[in-house]
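pasting for the record
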Amino acid sequence: MGQKLAALTTRMRTLFAEENIEMTEQLKILKHQAESQFEAVERVLEQLKTANDETWQAHKKDFEDGWENLSRSMKNIIARFS
């Protein structure tokens, strides 16, 4: 997912350069949200690498919620370029 976020950032920068478009404040906010959500998902995954079954079950919802939030943010950003 980190590669997808990096590729999306590169695509955004290319589109802005080609179209001579400034990144709007709203897009900056969406990008920051996606980056923050990605970092949160990464933190949960790091915790789960060494987790036992009980810990996994306790953090499963956090991971699913984080992944859903990240997915929603990515879709919002992508929709701006479609």
